[in-house]
Specification:
mainly beta; 2 helices; globular
């Protein structure tokens, strides 16, 4: 089983929300959601990668996972982002949209932060209570793995 302690890439997969949430069209979980579909993911686990984050970019395809992290800021960013705070089991605690030039509030139980372009998380159906899994791609040393957050 892999871990999230190294920078890398992978796929983000969404499981159903545990609170019985519906999407914006009133459909139940699983209808129109990104469940099972792999979302391209960059993992920023080192201090340097977390500090750089999305700064200097004009966009991102997929998402960026900052780990460990409990808060983010958008100072110096060029675009608005969606931010999802995740607990240690990779369950979404809160989702916020942040315009450039803001400080996010730290979340007490947050251990990871997921960032994407504004509007992407709503399109994926990512809501509080959703559990995500991360499938890391093989790195330079050939070590790859799967992390479900447990």
């Amino acid at each position: 089983m892999g871990d999230l302690r190294r920078d890398g890439t992978g796929l983000l997969r969404l499981a159903g929300a545990t609170d019985g949430a519906t999407d914006g069209a009133g459909r139940a979980d699983g209808a129109g959601r990104a469940n099972g579909a792999g979302i391209p993911l960059e993992i920023a686990a080192s201090y340097r990668a977390r500090t750089r984050g999305l700064l200097g970019r004009t966009g991102i395809t997929g998402a960026l996972l900052l780990t460990p992290a409990a808060s983010v800021h958008t100072l110096g960013m060029r675009f608005a982002i969606d931010v999802a705070y995740l607990d240690r089991r990779l369950r979404v605690l809160a989702v916020r949209t942040m315009p450039p030039g803001r400080f996010g509030r730290p979340r007490l139980r947050a251990r990871h932060v997921l960032e994407a372009e504004a509007g992407a998380m709503a399109a994926w159906g990512l809501v509080p209570g959703t559990e995500v899994t991360v499938e890391k791609r093989a790195g330079r040393d050939g070590a790859g793995g799967h992390r479900s957050g447990a």
